[in-house]
Design the sequence.
């Protein structure tokens, strides 16, 4: 029987936006993932936290965004741990939750380029598969230059025509995929809210309603 395939999509999700959803749907379809877990961090180790919304709100927004979307699920594992969110701890928990599954960490190129600052990153890189999504401003050749030779042997640029299967997972740990990313970021959304500009589809409607009702990202909070 084919192994189960699960995506782990960690982030601050401050807030989750349409770019996250779009990219996750592309990855899920392409890799045949049964499920992608959106895992908001409790305390992100790599981000400044000045205008960070409460973890409960960030988790709730992910729940609202994923509602009704097949295969996308909010996961509370890091929020419930109530400690600095290290991917290496999360991965251990997920291995117990999904024994025998192929686990794929999903992240954008900007995040992947900081991988060497992550706790136990060498161990992490060996312990699961990585899907690195290209984003505007991060063309693949720039990524390749930035990474140098360190991951060359174990990485693979997924061609548009290619269907990633178990033969590929057997030899490549880090797979770069062009997700036709939307040019949206959480910081741009926070800025739009602060300046009173409409969000016009940059976040799902239910997420916008939550931001408004909880008065998140207003001047007074940031
Ligand atoms: P900020 O603007 O606050 O830095 P962000 O928009 O990058 O936030 P995060 O929650 O930090 O959002 O992102 C979680 C993950 O999603 C990261 O791996 C990031 O690279 C990726 N990501 C964010 N926005 C996009 C997008 N538009 N397309 C593809 N991937 C994205």
Sequence:
């Amino acid at each position: 029987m084919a192994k189960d395939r699960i995506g782990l999509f960690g982030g601050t999700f401050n807030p989750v936006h349409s770019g996250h959803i779009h990219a996750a749907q592309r990855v899920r379809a392409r890799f045949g993932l049964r499920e992608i877990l959106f895992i908001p961090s409790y305390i992100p180790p790599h981000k400044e936290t000045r205008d960070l919304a409460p973890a409960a709100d960030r988790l709730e927004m992910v729940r609202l965004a994923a509602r009704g979307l097949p295969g996308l699920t909010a996961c509370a594992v890091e929020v419930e741990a109530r400690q600095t969110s290290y991917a290496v701890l999360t991965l251990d928990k997920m291995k117990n939750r999904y024994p025998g599954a192929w686990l794929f960490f999903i992240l954008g190129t900007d995040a992947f380029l900081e991988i060497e600052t992550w706790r136990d990153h060498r161990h992490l890189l060996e312990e699961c598969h990585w899907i690195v999504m290209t984003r505007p401003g991060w063309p693949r050749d720039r990524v390749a230059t930035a990474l140098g030779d360190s991951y060359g042997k174990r990485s693979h640029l997924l061609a548009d025509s290619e269907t990633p299967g178990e033969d590929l997972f057997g030899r490549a740990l880090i797979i770069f995929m062009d997700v036709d990313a939307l040019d949206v970021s959480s910081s741009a959304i926070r800025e739009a809210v602060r300046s009173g500009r409409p969000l016009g589809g940059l976040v799902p409607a239910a997420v916008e309603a939550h931001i408004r009702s909880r008065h998140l990202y207003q001047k007074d909070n940031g």
Observations:
- Residues 111 and 208 are 25 Å apart (CA to CA).
- The chain is about 40% helix and 15% strand.
- The mean pLDDT is 90.
- Strands lie at 5-11, 35-40, 72-74, 102-108, 129-134, 155-157, 174-178.
